Amino acid sequence: MSDSLSAQQLLRIRSKLETVVNDQAGSRQADSAAAALQRMRSGEYGYCVECGEEISAARLAAKPDVALCVDCQALKDEEEDA
Ligand SMILES: [Zn+2]
Questions:
Q1: Which of 17, 24, 11 is nearest to 63 (CA)?
Q2: SS (H, E, C) the chain
Q3: For residue 74, how far is its CA from the centre of ligand 1 (angstroms)?
Q4: Which residue, of 43, 47, 64, 66, is most buried by count of CB atoms within 10 Å of its CB?
Q5: Which CATH number is associated with domain 7-81?
Q6: Residue 71 C-alpha to ligand 1 middle, in angstroms?
């Protein structure tokens, strides 16, 4: 069972990210989407920027600009709550 994104899903996500970059220019969401597009170009998209673990396709589909895996996100949320 593969949990990776299909080429078609990736294309859909990319166009979603491009829409956010264009429509919400200057916002935090646009910055985040632009960073995700950058990771796509460099082949790092879909991997956690903290630990390098593969991020699940379901998580990416739900939140295309996500940069962290669930574990790192949980740690970060804890830090921010503290
Ligand atoms: Zn991680």
A1: 17
A2: CCCCCCHHHHHHHHHHHHHHHHHCCCCHHHHHHHHHHHHHHCCCCCECCCCCCECCHHHHHHCCCCCCCHHHHHHHHHHHHC
A3: 9
A4: 64
A5: 1.20.120.910
A6: 6
Ligand 1 center to residue 75 CA distance, Å?
9
pLDDT level of residue 70 (50, 70, 90 thresholds): very high
Cα–Cα distance, 55 to 48 (Å, whole number): 6
pLDDT tens per residue across span 2-46 = 578 899 999 999 999 999 999 999 999 999 999 999 999 999 999
Query: Which residues are paired to 47 by β-bridges?
Result: 54
